[in-house]
Amino acid sequence: MDFTLNITFYVYIAAIVAYVVREVWRAKTLRWIAFGVFTGAFILNTTLVVQRWFEANHAPMSDKYESFVFFAFTIAGVYLIMELVTIFIARVHESRLGIVGALQSLLAVWMIHSAMNTDSTIKELPPALQSNWLVVHVINYFVSYSALSISFTAAIVYLIYRAIYRGRAQEIVMSGSESQLRKDVTFDKLAYISVTIGFPFLTVGLITGSIWAKGAWGTYWGWDPKETWSLISWLVYLSYLHLPMILPKTKIKKTFAPILLSIVLLIAFPIVLFTFMGMHKLPTASDSDHIYAE
Amino acid sequence: MTKAANPQNKKVKNDSKSWQFLCSVKLAVIIIIILAVACILGTVILQMRSPEDYVNRYGEGLATFFSAIQLTDIFHSYWFSFLLVLLCVNLGCCTVKRWRNTVLQIGFLVTHISIIMILIGCVIDMMLGEKGGVNVYEGKSVDYYLNRADYRKIPLDFKVYCDDFIIERHPPKYKLLTFVKNKELEKFIPAKVGNKIKIPGSNYAVTVKDHYPDAELRAEPINTSKEPNNPAIYVQMMESNHVTAEGWLLAKNRNWYNDPKRDLKIEYLWADNDAAYEKLAKAAGKIAKPTLDIIIEGKNISRSMPVEVGKSISIDGTDYVVEIKQLALDYAKRDLPVNEQSSDNPAVRVEVNGPQGKETRWTFSKYPDYWDKAHQAKYKDVKLTCYVPDNFSQTSSSLRIVQNKEGKQTLSYLSNGKLVSTTDWEVDKNYDIDKTGLQMRILKYFPSHSIKKEVVERSGNHEGHNHGPGEHAGTPALFVEIEGPRGTVADWMLANNPPRWYPDKNFALLYEQSGMVVKDYKSILRVVEGGKTVMTKIIEVNDPLKYKGYVFYQSSYDPEGERYTGLQVTRNPGLIVVYSGFILLCIGVVFIFYVKPFLRRKLRKGQKVEDYYSEDEIAAEHIE
After folding, report:
1. Are A203 and B586 a contacting pair at CB < 8 A?
2. Quick one: DSSP state of residue B196?
3. A118 lies in which domain range?
4. Shortest Cα distance from A273 to chain B (angstroms)?
5. Stretch (H or E) spanning B305
6. Are A145 and A287 found together in one domain?
């Protein structure tokens, strides 16, 4: 287990390098190498998840270690599906995804690294977690988190490009041409698409969590810190989805609107991560019934 | 992008500004952001604590400010409720205003309505719902529960019996902890047979080589030398050739056995020289008598008296008279005749007579402080201690097995303090004890008695243990090899025993249970209405009992004796509305983001976006 975990860690690092190389040279032969390395890491990660499932005899997403490994698994999985869809279904050049692959891989590296520093002994499920809702709820959340993480990295890339092409930003955005530069600054669109992929999962995750809480604790909403923060992240993405409708009616410049939206995403994802693993830092944490992921 | 094909656009101009604002997305976004900020505050500021708590934590000024704007209970505050109502109104107006009766808007309609439904459902539950809890003792029933907010008793029109409460546990797990003393290094290693594990940061290595799932420590007496370092004999006592008692007597340890029924005491004595031998074997000798010591604090008076029941002395210089009322060799069996008690916990009952009347005390030979600590003494200055010799007995006859280095070994029978007979003894021979009709035999003689402790695998049945069938959890053992600077040592380790140290005393292994994890809490509940059982269910966490709109959840239990089960009771009449809202919200969101984009391209193929989308929709979907 430890050995596979280490290997997975290094292959994810290799994937970062491969994606950076692909983005810098943009050679056709490199097209599948980066994808292949990332896929390799994903397969290793899958064996980690499956092996754990068999060893622990419960869905491997109940404690900190398991959630980290599972999150890395969904991060890689969702990104790889997205890249395949981009190339084969949307038929867009993969440079539209650009460096996002490297950043997603970095995120997976972070998660695996956290897993390596976490107690990996198999623990028995406490009675409250012994529910089929656990699987539905957690899978929905991690798929959603993974898609939202793409929106986060895409927002970062967008803001960086906007900073680089600061002077010409206006003309590039307005040109509507198919130039390479134009493609480079469509990362705000990619971020939006990722949110539209992740948001329904976020909603379903929130709702299944509520139904589960009703079955286990008798209340579907109890303002538990974890519940409240999952609502906060939902509300932030909800406002991200509604903002574009009001921005044209304000004094904000049209070219600045995507920057503002990207900034919202930059705030939103850390909120998601905080919901995932920061609950013990809250002063109200002692009131929480959520032992999950702690 | 400039003109939207929305026919209602013209109407908008006629609407009042406040109506427009009430319908606007702007208001929605503002409410959403305020709600999010309120939620953050609600988890950062402690909620629903006592006013003093806030003053201690945040200071006087801030605490007053918090309570003034209801930041101490945000989620139940008026302004939070107002925001939710406003959100509902905004959603409703917005939905009515923007509805254009097209398939593409289904998601928009459904999501917005569903959120209104969820909020309305919550309000119904808050107004009409019930929530509380009740403890039901095993075998008893309740026909009420206690309201959560004010602990009011709320009657139920049926009875709920708890037939049984069960805690199921997982089989225990064991862990192997390594400890390097000079580095203060602790590390867990897998407690299963495997390869050599090097302990990082040290030059120790541990290999788990074998494992018994269920083992025990077996103690076996052995002889380690021919020198009489710790002489011991194994004696059998018999009556008409039936063994009545048998066991080891150690000359330098527990060297006596009392048989109160037969009024006989057996002693095993070792003599170092001939003179001592003669004395031990032939002289009747005196057994030390129990004594009672009396100290009067502050007066420098101390007296000692033999413990003889009925005897009393008056202490000179005081008004106290101390009388001995009873001697017990085993306090727990103090009601039996003394000669039927074995010397386990000797105690003397004393009556102190003084100016304030009588006071009775028990004084324990082994626990001199006990009585004073546990009771309020009338005469605090009177301190009593008693001494009862370990081998004290009131038996009238005794059998002495005496041995010395030179190989002399005799059996002396004494009765009423007089020597009756002396015979030499040999191992494995029966001897009659005078005319008592009793026999004895010495089966083994170990000059250097020692105990060899060995871990052995336990097998077969364990009947009579305190657990149900299939629940038996044995004590596992590991065969562990430790490599270190002083070479390799290997031994069995039984779980939950003291740590095993490597010879250099710098490295230790601890093999212990890591706790019994609870698998589930279950209660067998029975609902009785009008004298008839209408429902029986084993409830557990995540699986409540539902009856007549009430739901009974397993929520706690009696932590001390597991005698009762703690049930949470709820009634949520709005639940159906909330859940319908949940389902609609899921459907709506999935429709908007997963169905609509494809549907739009299919339905509106070749049409310009501007022809069928409003400005808002174009912006919302990032269409350029």
Report:
1. yes
2. -
3. 1-125
4. 15
5. strand B301-306
6. yes
Segment 28-57 of chain B within 8 Å of chain A by CB: 28-29, 32-33, 35-36, 39-40, 42-47
Are B29 and A247 within 8 A, CB to CB? no
Domain ranges of chain B: 9-128+576-620, 130-169+518-570, 174-220+453-513, 225-286+393-447, 291-387
Span B61-85, pLDDT tens digits? 888 988 888 888 899 999 999 999 9
Please report the ipTM that was assigned to this predicted complex. Answer: 0.94
Q: How many CB atoms lie within 10 A of CB B592?
A: 23
Same domain, A239 and A112: no
Write down the mean pLDDT value for chain A. 87
Tokens 């305190």 belong to residue: B466
Q: What is the mean pLDDT of residues A60-69?
A: 91
For the beta sheet containing B382-387, the strands, ordered from the edge strand earlier in sequence to the opposite edge, are B301-306, B291-296, B382-387
Query: How far is the C-alpha of B523 from the C-alpha of B136, rounded, in Å?
Result: 10
Beta pairing partners, B219: B453
Q: How does B333-347 read in b/e, with b if 16+ C-beta sit within 10 Å?
A: ebeeebeebebebbb
Q: Does B158 touch chain A (CB under 8 A)?
A: no
Residue that is last in its domain, among A98, A125, A152: A125
What pLDDT, in 10s, does the model give residues B364-420? Answer: 888 887 777 777 778 888 888 888 877 677 777 888 888 888 778 888 888 877 788
User: Has this prediction a pTM greater than 0.80?
Assistant: no
CATH code for residues B225-286+393-447? 2.60.200
Q: Are residues A96 and A148 in the same domain?
A: no
Ordered DSSP codes for B380-442: TTEEEEEE--TT----SEEEEEEEETTS-EEEEEEETTEEEEEEE--TT-EEEETTTTEEEEE
Asked if A51 and A118 sit in the same domain, the reply is yes
Q: Which 8-state DSSP code applies to residue A126? A: P
Beta strands at B430-433 and B215-223: parallel, antiparallel or unpaired: unpaired
Nearest CA in chain A to B57: A283
